[in-house]
Amino acid sequence: MKIKNSKRWSSPDWKPYLIGAIGFFLAFFLRFSLHDRLDEHFPTLFFAINCTMLAYFYGFWPSFVFLLMSIPVSIYFFIEPYGAFDIGIDTDVTDQIVFLIITLLTAVFFEKLRREQYRATLLQRVSESRFQLLVENDAELRQAIFAAKSQTDN
């Protein structure tokens, strides 16, 4: 059975973006507070956690929006030279590309899994309602047969 609205497993409101913004600022301030210890290492770690959590709970698009916001912020604040968009080392570019690809793939996989989960839930509900209708119809049919038998016996 084809279920067309399995794409709508998450609510289409502003709540995911509000929670994503809170997570984004929390990730930024956490990374910024640990900047003295981490220096230039793991510039996107906390942003990746935020994007992954958004993908799991709210879907692909909120995660994608904050992924696109995370890349320039991590380059500007946490990669040398700090406070500029100049990336000096090729490994920094590679790290950003890896962050982009892994977070995108994670978001896509979570989206597909959530759609299938929602589709299975919808199919279960349809199946249960059809079974209930079948039971009710069977009870009515048995009553009609019983009533017809009792009329012919009289």
From TrEMBL:
An example Gene Ontology biological process: phosphorelay signal transduction system
Keyword Transmembrane assigned: yes
Task: Please give the Gene Ontology molecular function terms for this protein.
Answer: ATP binding; kinase activity
Q: Which InterPro entries match?
A: KdpD_sf, KdpD_TM
Q: What is its main location?
A: membrane
Where does this polypeptide localize? Membrane
Q: Which UniProt keywords apply?
A: ATP-binding, Kinase, Membrane, Nucleotide-binding, Phosphoprotein, Transferase, Transmembrane, Transmembrane helix, Two-component regulatory system
Bilayer topology = Multi-pass membrane protein
Report the residue ranges that make up the Sensor protein KdpD transmembrane domain in this protein. 17-120
Q: Name one Pfam family in it.
A: DUF4118
Q: Give the CC-aspect GO terms.
A: membrane
Cleavable signal peptide: none
Transmembrane region(s): 16-34, 55-77, 97-113
**Name under which the protein is recorded:** Sensor protein KdpD transmembrane domain-containing protein
Give the species.
Answer: Polynucleobacter victoriensis
